[in-house]
Amino acid sequence: MATTDPPPPAASWRPGCADGCPSVAAPPRPAGPPTRVRVPRIGVDSGLTVLGLDRAGVLVPPTDFDTAGWYGGGPAPGDTGPAVLAGHLDSRRGPAVFARLDELRPGDRVEVWRGGRWLSFRVTGSLRTRKDRFPTAVVYGPTPGPELRLVTCGGDFDRRRGHYRDNVVVFAVADG
């Protein structure tokens, strides 16, 4: 006696659904600006201010050394594209909000509060670059999905100019 296999289930079929199930919608995109960032590995838990550009087109850092900021002229965390978060390395009083940013490694988690929920990102890498060679296209250029760029100062301090010579940039992609 020959046996035949049953036909494959319909594309919308899910286990436990006799007549197919309605498609499951993706969670709605978060609304509003991001208001908080957490980076557990380096002990960051900070509110976020909205940042802009100066007349030369350079990102203006947060005024509070203990608070990170989000560049409001670009994508918000959770939207397609690179959301840029920036914070100071230190102040005259000591370490600032992103003092340990250069300690992040691939796989570390970054969380951003937006639209009433935590959005999770996973670090994929980092770089340190001279400020006069800042990779603007790499940091601000289009991405296929939601990503984060965390930026602070690094390298040697130039006492004559009163600034660090380098930037540290950490790259992260949305989880899930």
Automatic annotation (TrEMBL):
Segments for region (Disordered): 1-36
GO molecular function term, any single one: hydrolase activity
Name of the protein this chain belongs to: Peptidase C60 sortase A and B
Keyword Hydrolase on entry: yes
Keyword list, A-Z: Hydrolase
Cross-referenced InterPro entries: Sortase, Sortase_dom-sf, Sortase_F
Compositional bias of kind Pro residues: 1-10
Source species: Micromonospora lupini str. Lupac 08
